[in-house]
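Example record

Each entry pairs one chain with its bound ligand, adenosine-5'-triphosphate.
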Amino acid sequence: MRCIGIFGGTFDPVHYGHLRTAFELRERLALDEVRFVPCGQPPHRKERVTPSAVRMEMLAAAIADEPGFVIDERELMRPGPSYTVDTLASLRAEFPETALCLLLGMDAFLDLPTWHDWRKLLGFAHLVVAHRPGWQAPREGLLGTLIKSHRTTAVRELRERVAGSIHIEPVTQLEVSSTELRRSIRAGIEPRYLLPDNVWRIILASHCYAAPHEETTEVS
Ligand code: ATP
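Structure tokens for the complex follow.
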């Protein structure tokens, strides 16, 4: 059965923590593709989000050389908050006989019980949780119980049915976060080697992380 990874995020900006995680999960799980799904209106975020056209441009530049990576714009097309459950329902309708794996960092997974209609997610997709620096899989509570009852014992189980399993996969841990990148770029610190150079060039050209009153640097 075909098996695709769904990697949602604000990608403001996309960085090597996202890219390396998606790459390792695609290899280890032999995913047919990874669809990056940039969020339209993140339901949780208080800070202003960079316009979707700029986030898309950065994402497209970052994945241009990797044929197994594609962008899925459905959340940008939908008005209102971007709920993952709606995204998975629409992907399930489009791909009725494909295994769908929602790829999540451990921090995102631990946040799951705050997501809209989160209990429905496993009806539409598998959950694949990548270890993120500093996080441990929960053993107790709502998520601990959920893991116990749905956890896979082998990767191949992800292709045996279209949804409903939880798989935990360790990935190379890169301590990069978009929030920290935005903060350091505003403080004048170059993010070289934390994100692709072509993404940095877009950041410089669009001034998207400059404070409104700041002088901005031109692309060299
Ligand atoms: P922000 O700091 O703005 O919240 P972020 O860097 O956490 O951003 P998001 O776009 O919110 O990135 O995250 C999208 C997905 O990528 C989430 O599932 C998150 O857990 C995962 N992720 C983010 N950073 C990393 C990282 N360094 N390593 C592995 N996964 C990551």
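Residues 3-175 form a domain with the Rossmann fold fold (CATH 3.40.50.620).
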